[in-house]
Amino acid sequence: MRPQHSNRAPADAQRVNVYEPWEELYWGEKLRCTSEQLRAAVDAVGVSVADVKAYLDKSKRSHGSLAVHPSPSLRHQMSAQAHKLLASSRVHLFQ
Q1: Residues ≥6 apart with Cβ < 8 Å to 56
Q2: In 3-state terms, what secondary structure has residue 15?
Q3: Which tens digits make up the pLDDT trace of 32-78?
Q4: How many Å apart are CA 5 and CA 80, to the nearest integer?
């Protein structure tokens, strides 16, 4: 079963939002980077998707791409974490 966040699109497709856990996971999957790399890119160039993508592409070229692409087992762990985050956020929202 796919995590529920995978069916959602970000509120603003032109801006990377790292403050909403499911959006951070969405952008990490979309841009093929870790949360740490995504946050570093946003800190460096701002929230524009085009700027973040360019920053990450430049970073991949200079540091190699092995550390940027999570393995299938890591992606599975990330999906499980996303599911837990979504479940816990629903609990907090409706209490």
Answers
A1: 31, 33, 37, 38, 41, 68
A2: strand
A3: 999 999 999 999 999 999 999 999 999 887 766 544 455 566 666 66
A4: 11
Residue 34 in tokens? 């870790």
Q: Is the pLDDT of residue 28 over 90?
A: yes
Contacts 24+ apart (CB under 8 A), 77-83: 78/25, 78/28, 79/2, 79/3, 82/3, 82/5, 82/21, 82/22, 82/25, 83/3, 83/4
Looking at the DSSP assignment, which residues form a beta bridge with residue 65?
none
Taking a C-beta distance cutoff of 8 angstroms, is the pair 61, 30 a contact?
no
d(CA 56, CA 84) in angstroms, rounded, equals 27
Amino acid sitting at position 4: Q
| pTM exceeds 0.70 | no
Cα–Cα distance measured from residue 51 to residue 62, given in angstroms and rounded to the nearest whole number: 17
